[in-house]
Fold this protein.
Amino acid sequence: MKQKSNVFLAEEKISVLMRKFAVPCIISLLAAAVMIGDGCCAFVSISLGAGKKEEAHRRGALVVPLSCVFSSVS
């Protein structure tokens, strides 16, 4: 089996490496934020429609810390 080499990490320009590795990471974090935000929006809308205003406020307030935890783990 042929072993892959990581020599390009030492030889490649920093700007190229940043585009190659940071951009996909940022895109994945944005996708996670959209997923959490859309889910919360749907839940809050359903709760408000059902007349459960207090539950909508409590669950909506959990989204910010959840997003912070999720983004720090990712």
The chain is about 80% helix and 0% strand. The CA atoms of residues 18 and 43 lie 37 Å apart. The longest helix spans residues 14-49. The helical segments are 8-11, 14-49, 53-73.
